[in-house]
Input
Amino acid sequence: MVAGAGNSSLIGKSIKRKPNKLPLKDPLLHRLTSAASVTSSFLKTNDLFLPPSQSLRLESLLSSLPIPPSPSSSTTTWFNRFVTSAVEDNDPRWNLYFRMSKPTFFNLLSILDFSSLPSSSFAAAIFRLAHNASYKSLLLRFEFDSVHDASRAFFTVCKLINEKLGQVNDLKPDYSPRLLPNCCGVLGFGRFEVQGKVIGSKGSVIVQALVDSNGRFVDISSGWPSTMKLEAIFRQTKLFLESESFLEGDMCKLGNGMLVGRYVLGDSCLPLLPWLVTRYDSNEDDDKCREFNNVVETALRSVEVVFDKVRAKWRILDKKWKLETMEFLPFVVTTGCLLHNFLVDSGDDYHSEEECVNGAGDAEMRNDEEDEEEEEEETRRSEGEVDIGSRRIRDAIAENLSRMSSIMMN
Output
């Protein structure tokens, strides 16, 4: 009896001690639960109108709390509710969420011929490209049973975009035709960063691109490591290896009587060729050379602007990619460039307010290369004399530019 009474007393004491600890946690837990409930309610009420950057941030915050999410009262997915809500063709939310108008969205969907996947899978892939949305966030918005299904749908859509939109159109000599007759575009480079130092201290994947006068990508070569020199990249691309067939066309007679074939502009770190016209070296400092170099510099900046637009519109490219996913980066970059072309052709190439605020630039790429430029120039010169015919072509183009500029000024 005594032992029993003693045990009963101990148990009673232990029961009394537990509540002493709980009040320390209960207020915090209560406040977290209350805040999560308010945030979740706000998100569910406004999810069709919030900018994706805000809604994704709130979703991430809620998922990080040690509180089970409240069950959704809706029986339909966010995308289905959005389509039902955004019925007007000019509803700005289509551009906000999918970077294109409603007519363009469904036009692209029809071109891709989604016979094996629902439209929600296409929408999920475009949403992920546009906002760097995680696969987990796609589960909350679209009809997926698992992260694996969302990932598979994303890469299926990217593959279809590459297949259906990847055909290169005929290259036309329309880049500033009066000043630069027979010029077909500008050859430049973009850089997309990768975490770690496996491919250099500023590790990144380099993309070579030929851009036309409309700001479209005419040729894309993606996936080159930043440890390679730009000229070495150039000499291994399909554009270089098949340049004769790619740039074949009528010759153009300049004002001085010289005939020139189709050509593109490029930076001085690349070789001067009959079809690749680069800047003059800095030691050539007459008015004609300076004017020509200024035109080339402006053209090269236009390539940077196009890459900036791709980054701003497809935010999945505006991040440092993890090393283990680096192999997919060139594929996704090409997808973004092809979508950019499609939007230019559709007349949907404009930026929403969110893009303008959140977009990042690629202009630092040229600054990163400045230290290497002199070395690249020395390497190029050490490989042998530049073809005399290429020099004559550049001189003739520069002289024609100077003459036409004077005529236009007068």
